[in-house]
Fold these 4 entries.
Entry 1:
Amino acid sequence: MHRLRVGIVEAQEIYRRGLEAALADDSGIELVFVVAEDPPDEPVDVVVSSSERAKHGHGATVVCGSPPDAGRATPAEHVFAHLPREAITSGQLIAAVRAASVGLYVLGTSEADSLERRIDRRRRDVLRLLAQGADTRGISRALRYSERTVKELIHNIEHDLHARNRAHAVAVAIRQGLI
């Protein structure tokens, strides 16, 4: 069984120890390094950090800290999970590390609430029809929108959900309980 190689970069010792203890409970995770700053050039699958700037040339990043800047439309390229520092559990951290290791995005509570507000009724209707296998023309007929409007809605949905394509958008929407 392949164990996930994980590194922790956290300036605050007490929090660093908590992250280490949470991840050490999972036999499928190998802690490669636990440092306050400047990690070694040791390759890992995922870096857990309190800062989005913690790319360090390693794998995907799980950020445990304050929510990202609300004005920014997408997370930093390497950040796949953003968990609120004040309410994270070891189960959530392990799940986020596993998801980030395979390229899935994980939204913390405050981001998920914001996402639910951005995906309005029109976009949910489009997502439901996409989930049923409808194409642009079929969605256009069912909802009585122009095909151009449907394409724009799908583009916006993919953007808001950080999805690579329509199928990924549907999968994210289902995971987040949006449809």
Entry 2:
Amino acid sequence: MILGIETATEVCSTSLIHNATVLAVRTVKEKNIHSERLMTFIDEVLKESGCTLAELDAIAVSIGPGSFTGLRIGVSTAKGLAMARNLSIVAVPTLDAVAEGFRLAKNDKATATFCSMIDAKRQEAFSCFYSVDEHDIQRISEYVIDSKEAIEKNAVVKNAVLVQPEVSAVPVALLAERRRKEFDVSDISHLEPLYLRDFIATTAKKKIIH
């Protein structure tokens, strides 16, 4: 069984899967909720499926790109649980998980080109292009950050689907199970999120007078 964790966006989600079957899932989309809800969601999916941490085969975590704060919470939680229970971590790039979500939602068997996108603020987005069929996804470009306008123009040129699926921990866990050898982390102590750009602190617009 694999526990999935998704915190790279405003979505906070956990899932539990076994042999490509979803046993339980919890998802909420709300800003700044990850630290409050993540452990509760983990407990809930384990209880719903009658599973304990000791019975897990691995923890799959969405490693970015995405929200700096959300990624830190997700990765640190995965590392803490893995170290405490001697579990493996499967680090799934978030853009890959979005593409997997598109594959799961696809209702035909034709191969499609899909543009996976995650909001990066300031009219920018993280993106990557994939070839998607009924069995798997294949990355056909690099992970990049660019203006949304430039990404959308590139998608039109490539005749790529731009409609994004709902984000959740389900595709994270399913992709981790299917392609575990590719994403398995050999040394979890050195696991870091995939940010793609440096953190830029913002300053308050109004001064606070004490």
Entry 3:
Amino acid sequence: MNQKPLFISDIYDALSDVVRALGGPKAVGALMRPELPADQAGRWVSDCLNREHRTRFDPEHVLWLLKQARAAESHAAMAWIAETCGYAPPVPVNPEDEAVRLQREMVGLMARMETLASQLRINHKLPGGVRVVG
């Protein structure tokens, strides 16, 4: 169970909440920086979350953290970003719902392509007098 933070004041709090939800700096560091020993990778994450430290996450790191937070059903950081930027609260998409939507869209596009191919066969000739055959 992920406990939602009571208050997020800035991006550091938001990302700290993500790191907590993902198991803490050492666990996250080991995933983000596998080339480093786990303790050192954990210190790197802690440094990136420290407002006073010069070490910072790259934008790619922030996106990775947000995607991992989504997978862990921890949405506070994304909600804070949306609110701070003047957007409506985000609604996570159920991957199964997204797959069904994409399949439905693909079936519709295929039906449209079949209709266009049929119209082309019936009404038009290709350059050089070659007719489209189905």
Entry 4:
Amino acid sequence: MALRKMTENDLKMVLDWRNSPSVRENMYTSHVIQWDEHQKWFEHIKDNPRFLWLIYEEIHPEGVVYFTNIDKQCRKAFWGFYAGDTKAIGIGMRIAYEAMQYAFNDLNLRKLNCEILAFNKVVINQHYKFGFKKEGVFRKDHCKDGEYIDVIRMGIFHDEWKSVEPIIARKICKIRNN
């Protein structure tokens, strides 16, 4: 897999991914995003070289990863990602692995943080498998469809990632060989 910066040519594909129910239901912004809103969003973020990346397997785009609140002095950031083809076996694991390699090797982060809506047990469990630790709960912090939902804060340090990275790499190899 490889990462490359998102371009205007990717906007339609990414909008389709982002508006799919399986992605939308797990995001802070869960309404159907219209084309003009999507274009304005891209204009706002496109010049940030570290913000939004497409993840590719050979020439096939697989998903999106983004890094926000990058603090160069403290060497930390937040991240998020979503898959384009949510039915592909192991896609979440492959995207997360590649993104974490980028975060710790290319961005030289010391710590990577994330926030996950508490009902999203699959993603929470995936983060645990990747070595993330639960750092807190923002109780009833996000309102979604009129309901207040807890937000789980998780984080991982570079050395914690290095201890679990070979295990994840072997799992990905097994998926690819099946």
